[in-house]
Structures are given as C-alpha cells and as structure tokens.
Amino acid sequence: MLFDILIGAINIFGWGLKPLIEKKAIEHSSYLVFSNTRYITTAIISIFILALCKKKVISKHLNLKTMYYSIVVAIIGLVSIMSNYYLLSKYDANLVVGIVEPALVLVTLVLSYMFFNEKITIIRMIGIIIITIGMAVTIFFK
User: Fold this and answer.
1) Closest by CA position to 81, among listed 35, 37, 40, 45
2) Into how many domains does the chain fold?
3) What is the pTM of this model?
4) How far is Cα 68 from Cα 94, in angstroms, rounded to an integer?
5) Residue 121 DSSP SS3
6) With 90 as the cut, is the pLDDT of residue 3 above it?
7) Cα distances (angstroms) measured from residue 12 to each of 91, 133, 136
C-alpha cells in the first residue's frame, strides 16, 4: 500500500510538472514539431527499455491485440498532444491544465459508463459536480 502511494505521488508530480516543461519547450519550437519529436524520443527510450527486458516477458505479451491497441492509443495520443501543445502555445499552462484535466475526468466517466459499463456512484456524481464548478470558476474568472 505504501509503495502504491509513492508510485501515485510520482505519477501526480510527473503529470503536474510535464505541462510546465512542455510549455517551455514549445517556446523554442512549434506544437507540431515538438509533439512529434516527443513521440519519437519516447519510442527510442521505449525500445531501449524493451531491450533490457527479458525475451520471455516480451514474447508472452507482444501479440496482434497489443499492436492494435498500441496503434489506436498512439494515434489518439498524438492528436490529443498536438491539440494540447497548441493550447499551451497560446495560454498559461495552469489555465490549460485547469480546464483540460477536469474535462478529461468528465469525458472518461461518461465514456467508461457508456462503453465499459463502469459504475457511476453518487459519490462520483458529487465529485463530478465539484469538478464542473471548478472548471466554470477557472474559465469565467481567468
């Protein structure tokens, strides 16, 4: 449990720091160039990591479904990151993140219910209402 909390903290810190560094990077490039070079760099690092893995692990999990989902997620990710970098090139990082990230929670909730039959509890609905209020405050009082 403590390890999971540590991993969660690293995840939160990384995703919180990432848009600030991305905004700085876009100042020296364009959203189109940076989004593509970021993915190319990620691919090179990923190939290195896979090369360090045991062959048995890779052969056990590398199949057509993995490749299919990898391609779909890569396309969605690239289009999404390009649009995110475009917004970061025009607006403050805290404004973009303050609108995009809560909206992402809303969209994920709805899509997970519609396509994966995930539960929407009253507590989650209350959280969504709070998030929506937070987004409205961010948008209208920027």
Assistant:
1) 35
2) 1
3) 0.80
4) 34
5) coil
6) yes
7) 22, 22, 23
